[in-house]
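[09:14] KT: can someone run the structure on this one? pasting the chain below
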Amino acid sequence: MKKWMILAAMALSGCAQISNYEAAVKTPAPLELQGNWQTVGPQSKLINEQAMGSLIIGAQGDTLDCRQWQRVIAKPGKLTRLGDDWVNVTRQVRVMPLELENGELHYDGLKLRKVDRPTVECQQALQEVAKRPNEAVIQDIEPQIMQPVSVPTQK
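[09:31] RB: done, structure tokens below
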């Protein structure tokens, strides 16, 4: 909580601000931050108890904030340092601190844990980011939960 207040005060005072995505320096991720992070269980910062949040952090500092429920919203970004803190800067120039505590990543009001691989939808979003390097948000991936289920007909 203290870090949020300090960052907010610094941003308001103009001391530490990122106002341009290109100006933020992409920084290679330390080993402890690299990987696929995902919410576990319901979280109050997500729209529904079935919603899921993910943050993918690549070794070179590329990031993907991927939220899914009835639709997928994926926001590419990059990891950088702001003072002594690690932050994720999205292409929309949203700056969110990362805090690792006891194996849990605190990010944008979410608590995430490391998982082996991203969800299918977030993997698709990663592929779309590679195809569309200038888009700030990828929103045209349909979650599996919304895909029709085929039911065999009974005779």
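[09:33] KT: thanks! Residues 4 and 97 are 8 Å apart (CA to CA).
[09:34] RB: yep, looked fine to me
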